[in-house]
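Lab notes, practical 5.
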Amino acid sequence: MKRLIVITLLFAGFYSFAQNAPKPYGPLPTKTQLQWQETEMYCIIHWGPDTYTGKEWGNGDEDPQLINLKQFNAMQIVAAAKAGGFKGIVVVAKHHDGFCLWPTKTTEHNISKSPYKNGKGDIVREYREACDKLGMKMGIYCSPWDRNSALYGKPEYVTDVFRRQLKELYTNYGPLFITWFDGANGGDGYYGGAKETRTIDKSTYYGWPDTWAIVRKLQPGAAIFGDVGPDVRWVGNEKGEAGETCWETYTPHAPDSGKMPGNGYVRDYEGTEGQRDGKYWMPAECDVPLRPGWFYHKDQDNKIRSVDSLLSIYYKSVGRAACLDLGLSPDRLGRLYQNDVDSLQKFGRVIAQTFSINLAAGATLTASNIRGRNKMKYGPRNLLDNNRYSYWATDDRVTMPQLVINMHHARTFNVIRLRENIKLGQRIEAVAIDIWQNGKWEQIATATSIGANRLIRLPQDISATKVRLRVTKSPVCIALSDFGLYKENK
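Output from the prediction step:
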């Protein structure tokens, strides 16, 4: 049944009364997916034995005595992420080397066997407490591959080790906003002393449906990230970039092997753009490290991404309806190096300043190409209240309307933000932006696949009194929740 909403709004000379909401189009996001999408930016933190050995993937035979922290400071790390404008962190509680950063009962290869706090330390707990104090969200990654476990490759590893680890983490360190999985699917390792290569059938070994069920039961508010979702998909690269066209909808496809899709067993490149006709609402996460590597390496102290690099990544991830997951790498003392902290602060300052003022606020908005009276379901004024789910929609038969912002005097901008009310699906396929110059309209930009957020970063500053949005392709009526103009100053 359609929900009847009564709205009385004077706009552009006509009224809209008691109109039904537009019918949803295509796959729709769940509440959990909406909350994840609103997060926009978070950081994944890699720290462990690899920090001390200089490796990216440990073998599993690293001595816990390596973990002799002198200045571990979860507050410093989480505060640096917050200063960068990030809203949460993902703790790598166990990487492929199998070393657990919490005192687990599933393996001796854990933080309690290190000198840290005389064996009484719990790194995951300290991150949890820091997030609580600073108002940050927290997620967890526990690698499915374990190069230390003697049981890896056998069914008992999944049931008695991996899933028990997940239950410990999800029970004791919530609430979590995301649980992170990847396609780490075996190879050479230590395996309890057996230095050998172990292979598994990655389409079946981890029993993903039963593993994901643990998340649903213990952390129902957490989105599940993985190559194949089921809530959030991998974008298919580690550059932090979604496709210029990036659909929120996606159907995972396994390579031509006859296997069912599973983490580590999909066509990665398909995640970059998704599919317009995808069966599932499964938006993309864009992961990229702040340094060249995911773990700390001393020789990378002067190779931190610049503000310009981070801004480019931001517009190609968050600005294309994905979320950005930036990798942070605490050093051997247990702190973020100052160069890392400085880069985050500078980036966060630019983002905050850019989006603090919507230059379209207070402007007059008018709609055209709506084919007659009473075709507006919701007033365009809603586009200026910065509410993702307060929106403007045309009559069901009107799919290519135009919307003009008249600011009455020239304003200078270089970023345009568009958002759809994704509770009604991803509807718009293409738009064009014009400015009024010398008595006529001149096109300055085009974009596709709006979704939760589309940021158009112009190559130069634009000054104009009027800006026009033209929807040039949409299979159904639009449901636009934001049309804003901003000025980025570095």
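Observations recorded by the TA: The chain has two domains: 4-24+358-486, 40-354. The radius of gyration is 24 Å.
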